[in-house]
Specification:
The protein is mainly α. Helix content is about 75%, strand content about 0%.
Length: about 500
């Protein structure tokens, strides 16, 4: 972790370390690839491979859950051996290969060759995200000392980079995939990832030496068959890809992995907190665990975006705008566009309130996030009920995503910043990995909610709206409860300003 003197004396851009803007650019292109592919995935499964809605939701949920499980391993390996920079580089290589493989579409239906390429591509992406996602955020954290008031604004600016890519991805890949062919949409996602990887390699000096291996000499040791420990990590990772492939084919196993991984991760953190740390650090880790436990509900609702909401928009929303019917996949760019537009205001707001001693605590922000995500679904339900038997007016999709984004800005960048600040230095990667593991749980919950929307039969608008009403009110209720206990939980943070 950078010291205050080192951080503030290094060259800056707009008051922030230069490395922040490199990581902004790299993550922008990685998210372009991820969200561009995700915008097409549910349609690819149902329209190209002809899976039923229920099967498609299961595959989609397993994929998005595994994408957030693997950062637990990638964070641990980076903490102990590779360092964040090497982990991000390796993850970028795997992601580039996986996204490019998605361009092999075959003849559709049950084409075994195309399905094999599809599962292999998803497996490479899952493993690649494990090394890149948690550790690129850790690199941002390394650029600032723990008590630097620029941390939350920096993560919010970093979040703009993420969402600039997430906005462009569905627009470019969705349009190419739905109008011209799946291979063009997925191919564009692959090109985006290669661009991000090239930037990370070429502009490495902007990181000012941050994120290097904790003990470089250990990586040069040769513990097995004359192979260095660093290359052994890479080879074992490639050997794990077939295991992930098997999990993608056996999606039901993912829930068991989530439970086991959660028990192990939380157990490791609690053991460290309760038996090996001083009181202040222990309390910070306990606060981090509280935030980790709260966030899966938020993502369970938010991640309807790529599954049930995507199909609802395709089947039950009047998508004609200015005389043109807009492809449903393009609406997934709305959340990212809103974030790019609104995030600067939130970055200013938190800083302004912080200087006046009025900034809500991190737990309070989480409560506000849950209330807003629930309200988004309730707005859509109101619009669908007002439309009766006709299609839902598209304005309610715009309003739903707007409320989801204001909720996200109260939770996601704030939560990632909190993980890097609350963790002790030797556990930053593990805590960040556990954060993403909880997000994986949210994604798996999202698949269960999506499957519940089909209980009354595929294509039933009434079934979807009924489920959305239930989860909307539930999220609002939990959000209010979190707000009520936030003042007590926030006292665990010894560094709270």
């Amino acid at each position: 972790m950078a010291t205050g003197a080192e951080s503030r004396s290094a060259p800056t851009i707009l008051g922030h370390p230069r490395g922040l803007f490199l990581l902004f650019f790299v993550e922008m292109w990685e998210r372009f690839s991820y969200y561009g592919m995700r915008a097409l995935l549910i349609f690819y499964l149902t329209k190209h491979f002809l899976f039923s809605d229920e099967k498609a939701y299961l595959i989609y949920g397993a994929y998005t859950a595994l994408v957030f499980i693997t950062p637990l391993i990638g964070g641990y390996v980076a903490d102990r051996y590779l360092g964040a920079r090497k982990a991000v580089l390796f993850g970028g290589v795997l992601l580039s290969g996986g996204h490019l493989l998605m361009g092999i579409e075959g003849s559709g239906g049950a084409d075994p060759t195309a399905l094999a390429a599809f599962y292999l591509a998803l497996s490479l992406i899952i493993v690649g995200v494990g090394f890149l996602k948690a550790n690129v955020a850790v690199l941002v954290g390394h650029l600032y000392p723990r008590d630097d008031i620029r941390r939350d604004p920096a993560f919010t600016l970093f979040y703009i980079g993420i969402n600039a890519g997430a906005a462009l991805g569905p627009l470019v890949c969705g349009l190419l995939g739905e109008v011209y062919g799946w291979q063009y949409g997925f191919g564009a996602a692959g090109v985006g990832m290669v661009v991000g990887l090239a930037a990370f390699i070429g502009l490495r000096p902007l990181l000012d030496g941050k994120g290097e291996p904790p003990r470089p000499e250990r990586l040069r040791e040769k513990p097995f068959a004359g192979i260095s420990r660093e290359w052994l990590i890479y080879l074992l990772t490639f050997a794990a890809v077939p295991l992930v492939w098997l999990l993608m084919a056996k999606q039901e196993v993912v829930s068991l992995i989530l439970i086991a991984a959660s028990v192990i991760a939380v157990g490791m953190i609690l053991h460290k907190a309760l038996f090996r740390l001083e009181r202040a650090d222990r309390n910070r880790l306990l606060l981090a665990l509280f935030l980790i436990v709260v966030q899966p509900l938020f993502w369970g609702l938010y991640e309807q975006t790529g599954s049930s909401l995507n199909l609802f928009t395709d089947r039950h929303v009047d998508r004609r705008m200015f005389g043109v019917e807009v492809p449903a996949s393009l609406f997934l760019s709305l959340t990212a566009i809103y974030i790019v537009l609104i995030a600067p205001f939130f970055a200013w707001l938190w800083t302004a309130l912080g200087r006046r001693g009025l900034e809500p605590s991190t737990p309070a922000k989480f409560g506000l996030a849950l209330i807003q995500i629930g309200a988004g679904f309730l707005v859509l339900v109101a619009g669908a009920n007002a439309a009766g038997v006709g299609p839902t007016p598209v304005i309610f999709i715009f309003l739903l995503y707007l409320l989801h984004v204001t909720g996200e800005l109260c939770l996601s960048p704030v939560g990632v910043s909190a993980m890097t600040r609350l963790a002790v230095p030797e556990m930053v990667g593990l805590l960040m990995g556990t954060w993403y593991l909880a997000t994986a749980g949210g994604n798996y919950i999202a698949s269960l909610i999506a499957r519940a929307t089909g209980d009354a039969g595929e294509g039933s608008a009434a079934a979807v709206v009924a489920v959305y009403g239930q989860i909307g009110w539930f999220a609002v209720g939990v959000g209010v409860a979190v707000l009520l206990i936030a003042p007590f939980v926030a006292r665990l943070d010894a560094d709270r300003r």
